[in-house]
């Protein structure tokens, strides 16, 4: 995730602009001062954009908390809420001690970073990007919180806390190093294009795979090993519905998450200081919106024709599935493709629900369905729906092979 360069960072281009302004202003000193002021403003606007995006992503913890609280029975509300709170607290400390180092520290083999533990050895008053650190911690906390929904109502607090710390201290950082560090073996941001995997690299703009699939599959493992809740399946193995206690909290959580996704996806542009970056961020916001809306509508129509009901909770999950599905390709697909991606993500939730119930794997919030498998779909569909013009705009104009979809 390294899109932040502009002509301010290119010495030759900057010198040309200064020379041109010197001719107009009649003073090299005045021209240089003007250019420096512009560049400082651009840098400040980029940092502000990333910080606001980080705040939105962190605010998603509120959405997760409300969604979890509304989806469980009243007696389990306090238990799941303290897990959500400690995801943020423990995750912040774990990411500080080892997470950033494993994710963005220097790497000898493209697998894992091995420097800057507890932010040691960085230029804390100069070149270090504090805004990016905060943004990445918010992503790590989101990854861990996904798991809380999958294992809700039957997991010991201590065991869950250890799970959360391990995800934010090691698992997510290593995977984000693979896909987002300029040294990661999967990364589409590797400086040497000859080293790109399949000559294109792994394109996951905001984390369908790196964030959501990681959290969702971790939740799948947790749900499998802790087993289903008591009474979730009858003697014949058929699922017995256990309703959460508050649809209002589920809807509130869904809308908070939807708003937070505007930090998650557009914020992953990591810059907004010129029209190119602004175009990427705003287009990403549009595709994010359309995919979410499509996921909700497809779920509504499917369940009405199949069961003749309007299922509010299922529609909320369809919206979230659409959001997860578009996260990888939100910057590189057309708006019409986002509608298709969100609609198919909604149907994936229904299919995964059928399979997991057959296997008696109990996921009270359908977090495995939404994050694990819709995340997998989001990663896969980039190869089908990505357009060459958008990939070139976002990831650079160098040739990346004949891998484009539509």
Summarize the structure in words.
The relative contact order is 0.13. This protein is mainly alpha-helical and about 400 residues long. It contains 12 helices and no strands. Helix content is about 65%, strand content about 0%. Helix 7 packs parallel to helix 9. Mean pLDDT is about 90; it is low at about 1-5.
Q: DSSP helix count?
A: 12
Instruction: Compute the number of strand runs.
Output: 0
Q: Please report which band the strand proportion falls in: under 5%, 5-15%, 15-25%, 25-35%, 35-45% or over 45%.
A: under 5%
From the N-terminal CA to the C-terminal CA, the straight-line distance is 24 Å
Pairing-aware structural class of the strands and helices? mainly alpha
Please give the share of residues in helix: 55-70%
The largest sheet is: none
General form: globular
């Amino acid at each position: 995730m390294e899109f932040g360069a502009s002509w301010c960072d290119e010495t030759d281009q900057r010198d040309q602009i200064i020379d041109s302004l010197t001719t107009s202003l009649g003073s090299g000193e005045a021209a240089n001062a003007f250019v420096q002021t512009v560049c400082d403003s651009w840098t400040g606007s980029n940092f502000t954009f990333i910080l606001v995006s980080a705040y939105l992503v962190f605010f998603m913890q509120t959405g997760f908390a409300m969604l979890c609280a509304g989806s469980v029975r009243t007696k389990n509300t306090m238990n799941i809420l303290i897990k959500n709170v400690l995801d943020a607290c423990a995750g912040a400390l774990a990411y500080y001690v080892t997470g950033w180092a494993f994710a963005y520290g220097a790497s000898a083999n493209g697998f894992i970073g091995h420097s800057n533990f507890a932010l040691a050895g960085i230029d804390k008053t100069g070149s270090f990007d504090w805004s990016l650190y905060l943004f990445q911690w918010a992503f790590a906390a989101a990854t861990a919180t996904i798991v809380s929904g999958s294992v809700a109502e039957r997991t010991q607090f201590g065991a869950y806390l250890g799970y959360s710390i391990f995800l934010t201290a090691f698992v997510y950082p290593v995977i984000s190093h693979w896909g987002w560090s300029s040294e990661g073996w999967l990364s589409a941001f590797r400086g040497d294009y000859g080293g790109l995997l399949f000559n294109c690299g792994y394109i996951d703009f905001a984390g369908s795979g790196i964030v959501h699939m990681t959290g969702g599959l971790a939740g799948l493992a947790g749900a499998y090993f802790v087993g289903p809740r008591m009474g979730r399946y009858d003697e014949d193995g058929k699922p017995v519905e256990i309703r959460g206690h508050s649809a209002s909290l589920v809807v509130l959580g869904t809308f908070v998450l939807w708003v937070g996704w505007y930090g998650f996806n557009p914020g992953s542009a990591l810059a907004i200081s010129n029209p190119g970056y602004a175009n990427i961020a705003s287009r990403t916001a549009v595709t994010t919106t359309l995919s979410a809306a499509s996921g909700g509508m497809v779920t509504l129509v499917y369940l009405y024709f199949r069961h003749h009901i309007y299922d509010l909770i299922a529609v909320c999950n369809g919206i979230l599935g659409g959001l997860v599905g578009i996260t990888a390709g939100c910057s590189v697909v057309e708006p019409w493709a986002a509608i298709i991606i969100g609609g198919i993500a909604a149907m994936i939730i229904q299919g995964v629900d059928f399979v997991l119930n057959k296997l008696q794997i109990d996921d009270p919030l359908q977090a495995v369905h939404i994050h694990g498998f819709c995340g997998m779909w989001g990663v896969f569909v980039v190869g089908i729906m990505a357009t060459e013009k958008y990939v070139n705009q976002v990831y650079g104009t160098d040739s990346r092979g004949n891998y484009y979809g539509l």
